[in-house]
Specification:
115 residues, mainly alpha, YheA-like fold
């Protein structure tokens, strides 16, 4: 297989508005050590809570409360909120591309019970 199409796609991704916005905001937001640490904790808690939900378990109440507090704090800051939303747009774009590719390959990547 010739990977030149994949390299062109990578180049188009790097030139997309989503990518450019995300990386501009990331550089600004992650430059602040406190904000970067809060985002790291936010992501850790987010994954933990999502994993619990996917396994059918109830997330720890303390983790939920901590996640809600950090979320409120992060989303109250304009540039951090813009960064997190731009990250979500990037993730959605990449998920869409991944689905297109796996569909073309005839591979079902849905999680059991969720697809």
């Amino acid at each position: 297989m010739d990977y030149s199409t994949a390299h062109r796609l990578a180049s188009e991704i790097r030139q997309s508005d989503e990518y450019l916005t995300y990386h501009t905001l990331k550089d600004e937001v992650m430059g602040d050590e406190t904000t970067a640490a809060l985002i790291k904790e936010y992501r850790k808690l987010q994954v933990s809570i999502q994993m619990c939900a996917m396994s059918g378990a109830t997330p720890d109440a303390e983790d939920m409360q901590r996640f809600q507090g950090i979320s409120a704090l992060l989303f109250s800051k304009g540039e951090v909120s813009q960064f997190l939303l731009s990250e979500m747009r990037m993730q959605q774009m990449l998920a869409d591309l991944f689905k297109i590719i796996t569909d073309a390959a005839g591979i079902d990547m849905s999680l059991p019970g969720l697809g």
